[in-house]
Design brief:
With 356 residues, this protein is an alpha/beta fold. It has 11 helices and 12 strands.
């Protein structure tokens, strides 16, 4: 005899009580998760709820979005600003870490809140929801005054929570800056709220004379269901190039089969795998982090067994604001004292170059 069928929610879940009512957590967990909710935002959209298998205690989708009492366990190595945004923020809303590009952080809210988020101390309860008008004007003025800025990465939060009208206004303002040639939007919306990717939103992102990219954050192949694929197709069919970014997460994608299936799902949807991030030292996320050696073994396992199109760059955002460093294992080592290289193929066999 089967248990009662619990209908999937049609509204965004934001409180532990709502998670319990939906069958995603048990009553015993609710009190502990109320303490988590007081510190970190919770949001599970209907699209995400549809992906969760509540019969699987190790469901990789649930692990990403349902809060965990371990989020209140903070280690000395963890930090509120793990990648050092604040150290490179000359004006509110701008992070200028690299010479030719800046981050423009438009909003401090997301349609969902990932439990491993590296900006979790900057979004959610008690935080402003968006960049104010005066701050936005100062950010645009900063970009306009720095001709070395070739690319603007629009992020947050998730900028695609804004209305098409507001997105179009942002696009138009950035398009007026001649030295800005590339607009790159970072988002989870096509996966977690695919209905938002309307023709009006797609049109709001496009701008003649500028290269427009959308970088999709997804971590498990099941996230790319029918609705998400259709949302991505609306963007790509409009001429917007899509890239991916994923986070290496214990219990979600830390095996070669899952990671390879995720990269194939991206490529099948005309999304080029871009970054695989090593987990940042955000507070309360230790249960998600793998070792760098584990990550290197996984990306080594992808090489040769999966198409070259499916190979992301494995990166670490160096704590303290020092930027990204590629972590992909090197396949070539030079012999000391001569010009011979030892090159390892995808099967683990080593060869000399030039051949002996």
């Amino acid at each position: 005899m089967t248990g009662p069928v619990i209908e999937k929610p049609r509204t965004t879940l934001r409180r532990p009580q709502e998670l319990a009512d939906a069958g995603f957590i048990g009553p015993a967990a609710q009190a502990a998760l109320e303490r988590v909710a007081a510190r970190y935002a919770i949001a599970i959209t209907p699209a995400v709820a549809d992906l969760i298998d509540s019969t699987d205690p190790d469901d990789p989708i649930a692990r990403q979005f349902i809060p965990d009492a371990r989020e209140l366990d903070h280690t000395p190595q963890e930090r509120d600003d793990p990648i050092g945004d604040h150290a490179h923020s000359p004006v509110e809303g701008i992070v200028h870490r690299y010479p030719d590009r800046v981050l423009l952080k438009l909003v401090h809210v997301c349609p969902v809140y990932c439990r491993f988020c590296f900006r979790r101390e900057m979004v959610g309860p008690g935080q402003p929801t968006a960049l104010g008008e005066e701050a936005f004007e100062a950010a645009i003025a900063y970009i306009a005054a720095h001709p070395e800025i070739w690319e603007v990465v629009i992020t947050g939060g998730d900028p695609l929570v804004l209305s098409p009208r507001r997105l179009a206004a942002v696009t138009e303002r950035l398009a007026q800056i001649d030295h800005v040639k590339v607009l790159r939007w970072h988002t989870r919306v096509p996966v977690v709220a695919p209905e938002r990717v309307s023709p009006a939103l797609v049109e709001a992102l496009r701008e003649a004379g500028k290269a427009v990219y959308v970088v999709l954050h997804a971590n498990h192949p099941r996230e790319l269901g029918c609705d998400a694929r259709a949302a991505c197709a609306r963007l790509v069919d409009a001429g917007i190039v899509m890239l991916s970014q994923s986070v290496l997460l214990r219990g979600v994608n830390d095996d070669a089969g899952t990671l390879g299936a995720l990269m194939r799902a991206f490529v099948e949807n005309r999304i080029k795998p871009y970054y695989l991030h090593h987990g940042d030292l955000a507070p309360g996320t230790g249960h998600f982090r793998t070792g760098i050696d584990e990550g290197q073994a996984l990306v080594r396992a992808l090489r040769g067994h999966y198409s070259g199109l499916c190979q992301p760059t494995y990166v670490l955002d160096i704590p303290g604001g020092h930027g990204k460093a590629p972590l992909n294992p090197c396949a070539a080592e030079k012999t000391t004292g001569d010009d011979t290289w030892h090159v390892t193929d995808f099967r683990g066999h080593t060869h000399t170059y030039p051949p002996e």
